[in-house]
Design brief:
By secondary structure, the chain is an alpha+beta fold. It has a domain of about 230 residues: Immunoglobulin-like (Sandwich), CATH 2.60.40. About 20% of the residues lie in helices and about 20% in strands. It is built from 14 helices and 35 strands.
């Protein structure tokens, strides 16, 4: 009978392409390299993505010993058996003994942690909100956990339905120094989340798609890893219950979906530290997730007003004229930005002679009830002998250095070689606070003080215009790890558009860590210090807008969806982006209205103004060299369109502000998909071209060129026409 069971399982694995788990996810797969890993080679006629090299045995090589079940969780030891095939080949020997700990944190949340119990490894220094001791009770827990052996796996079952929501008893499990891999069968094919990437639909296509995650200065594009890093997903089970899963890991990674349905994680370091929340409703999932990582920031009321920006303002007179033209057109408008144009040679904390009148302009518009937000980049030029921000940072040792050295790693941003502050260092936090404060209150020339109300932090992936460093990187193993995740530039290595992975950073406890491990935390580490100094100097709530994010960034900032393009296909992509960031616990989001790159056309920009009026963060912004696209750059009909739709937005601000409060206090979503309110209606599970503000307002925008009607779905409920 044992032989019979084994034979049946192997036959299923061999004959069903849906059950193929990739044994050669790294580059260079061939029949020879595949068979040397002990796996099967068979090219599938079913198209791209189906692995040609796959496991024909369920064994992942790890056996389980010393299992201990308690009321608060499960613990066990895992031991590797060298006879198992493995995806890492012979490049990365597995760690022979691992520790498994499952903790029942609450009735609806648990943690599954796998780590090297004998040798300390890097773990993500992002604190989560966990109870001091596990609070789940056996009577009211929503889940059961079973540890499986031969092969090792963890199975999590929802008690109310019997649905297995997590099942890792699969051959892919691997745990080595720079390659960690684990697969799980999924409860259904309805999966949402993971980012930051531009996804073509809100619900993931599970037909053999791989998505890389690694923060990068990368405008949105298909299969291109972009600014943020969010290894979190939500799944709708077939009975309409929902759960969410976070992998707390900050190393470069990718995830592969397959139609089994199953999901495979591959990461390049750290440990495997999963947090599962059991909902059971989609809205409950987000509330439980934000309880874990932190509730979304509460923006000030003025930050819900319409906002204008442009990279390419010629001088402060152009900005002043824009303000007057918007007032004359009576178009609602509350916040004005300036991009890097206001700086002297793109140097943070400086003022260009062309913008010498900006401080007075800011004071004027504030006296009229408006607000002002400038941009700041983290990179600090090293080419200026009299540049005070660099000189003080150099003296105070705030910059990222080469390992075991005081020598700074020189990146490049715009025209200058640049140093990057290490926002984990207390010295860097004090330095940043002083520099930002002196931009607001200039002690050397008070007339040059810029009385801003919020801060926009950009290029904080961190970005560099040379690969790695001026002069190149020095550590091949870190910049080109043995397994290179499927990123948008897989052949370019991890240092593409950023700094070298061997850069040394110093954590608050004084321990050092390589940039390789904390790269995806760079924007996260800058965000809270920026909000802290903003609130300290303005004595108001303020708002920070950040480009790079990580789980819990939403506690301190909003996020715009990056440098998009003036194209019709970007309209629904912006809705998908907002819905995903709602899942990630970042409520204050929106795209650049009318597009950042390229010239926007009249109809596109008009439709985008209508859609963008319902972004929580509603800002029209575009790039240098493109024509103006603010509402007063067009004809009277366009001004009428903008005025009318923004008046609708402003009439709804009390409702929007209340939703922001509910998000801040209870973790509810502001922008939400229809299935958050109508999860029993399976038609809503696919909808992403409509969205809701909270539980009561449905927005069905025009998203197609030339359209005069919209195909909108109305779930069964009592609906009212807003306009009547």
């Amino acid at each position: 009978l044992e032989l019979g069971v084994s034979y049946t399982l192997n036959w299923t694995l061999v004959t069903s392409t849906q059950e193929r788990f990739d044994c050669h996810p790294d580059q260079g797969a061939s029949e020879d390299t595949c068979r040397r890993r002990g796996c099967v080679w068979a090219v599938s006629p079913q198209g791209p993505g189906v692995p040609a090299c796959y496991y024909d045995s369920p064994d992942n090589g790890y056996s389980v010993t010393d299992i201990t079940y308690t009321s608060s969780g499960v613990a066990a030891n895992l031991t590797f058996n060298s006879r198992s095939p493995r995806a890492a080949g012979n490049l990365m020997p597995p760690i022979s003994t691992l520790r498994l700990e499952v903790t029942y944190h609450s009735d609806h949340a648990l943690q599954v942690k796998i780590y090297d119990g004998a040798n300390a490894r890097y773990e993500v220094p992002v604190p989560l909100n966990l109870p001091p001791t596990p609070e789940a009770t056996d009577q009211s827990r929503l889940y059961d956990v079973m540890i499986q052996d031969k092969p090792f796996g963890v199975q999590i079952r929802r008690r109310s339905s019997g649905t297995i929501i997590w099942d890792t008893q699969l051959p892919t499990f691997t745990f080595s120094d720079q390659f960690l891999q684990i697969s799980t069968r999924l409860a259904s094919s309805h999966v949402y989340g993971f980012g930051e990437s531009e996804h073509p639909t809100f619900r993931h296509d599970l037909n053999w798609h791989t998505w890389g995650m690694f923060t990068r200065d990368q405008p949105p594009g298909y299969k291109l890893n972009s600014y943020g890093f969010h290894p979190f997903y939500m799944s709708l089970e077939d009975d309409a219950q929902a759960h969410g899963v976070l992998l707390l890991n900050s190393n470069a990674m990718d995830v592969t979906f397959q139609p089994t349905p199953a999901l495979t994680y591959r990461t390049t370091g750290g440990i495997l530290d999963f947090y599962l929340v059991l909902g059971p409703s989609p809205e409950n999932v987000v509330q439980e997730y934000t309880a874990l990582v932190g509730r979304p920031v509460m923006p000030p009321y003025w930050a819900l007003g319409f906002q204008l920006c442009r990279y390419g303002y010629a001088n402060d007179s152009e900005v002043a004229q824009l303000v007057e033209d918007m007032k004359a057109a009576k178009i609602p408008y509350d916040v004005q930005y300036t991009d890097i144009d206001y700086m002297e040679r793109q140097l943070d904390f400086t003022l260009s002679p062309k913008f010498s009148g900006l401080p007075a302009l800011v004071n004027k518009i504030k006296s009229e009830g408006m607000r002002f937000i400038p941009i700041l980049d983290p990179a600090i030029s090293v080419n200026e002998s009299s540049y005070l921000a660099f000189q003080r940072g150099l003296e105070e040792k705030v910059f990222i250095t080469w390992p075991n050295s005081s020598d700074i790693i020189y990146a490049k941003l715009y025209r200058a070689h640049a140093a990057l502050p290490d926002f984990f260092r207390p010295s860097a936090l004090a330095w940043w606070a002083r520099e930002v404060s002196e931009l607001h209150d200039n002690p050397r020339d008070p007339a040059q003080s810029i009385k801003f109300d919020g801060i926009w932090i950009d290029m904080n992936e961190p970005s560099s215009f040379v690969r790695g460093a001026v002069g190149g990187c020095r550590n091949q193993e870190l910049n080109f790890p043995p397994y290179m995740p499927q990123l948008g530039s897989r052949e370019e290595g991890l240092a593409f558009k950023t700094i070298c992975m061997e850069g040394e950073q110093v954590l608050p406890d004084g321990s050092t860590v390589s940039h390789y491990n904390v790269h995806n935390l760079y924007g996260w580490s800058q965000t809270k210090p920026t909000l802290d100094v903003l609130r300290n100097i303005t004595k108001e709530r303020g708002i920070v807008i950040t480009r790079s994010t990580y789980p819990s960034s939403g506690k301190w900032a909003g996020h715009w969806l990056g440098d998009n393009t003036a194209a019709w296909n970007q309209l629904d992509k912006s809705i998908i982006g907002m819905l995903e960031f709602s899942l990630f616990g970042i409520s204050y989001t929106g795209a650049d209205i009318c597009g950042f790159f390229q010239d926007s056309e009249y109809e596109l920009c008009a439709r985008w103004m209508e859609l963008g009026a319902f972004y929580p963060f509603s800002r029209n912004h575009n790039g240098k060299g493109s024509r103006r696209q603010d509402p007063v750059a067009w004809d009277e009909a366009f001004k009428d369109i903008s005025r009318n739709v923004l008046n609708i937005r402003y009439s709804l601000l009390p409702y929007l502000y209340t939703l922001m409060y509910e998000a801040h206090v209870h973790g509810s979503t502001v922008v939400r998909p229809l299935f958050h309110e109508f999860v029993e209606d399976r038609k809503t599970w696919e909808i992403y071209r409509q969205f809701m503000w909270g539980p009561a307002l449905l927005i069905s925008p025009v998203l197609d060129k030339g359209a005069r009607t919209v195909d909108a779905y109305f779930p069964s409920a009592r609906w009212y026409d807003f306009h009547t």
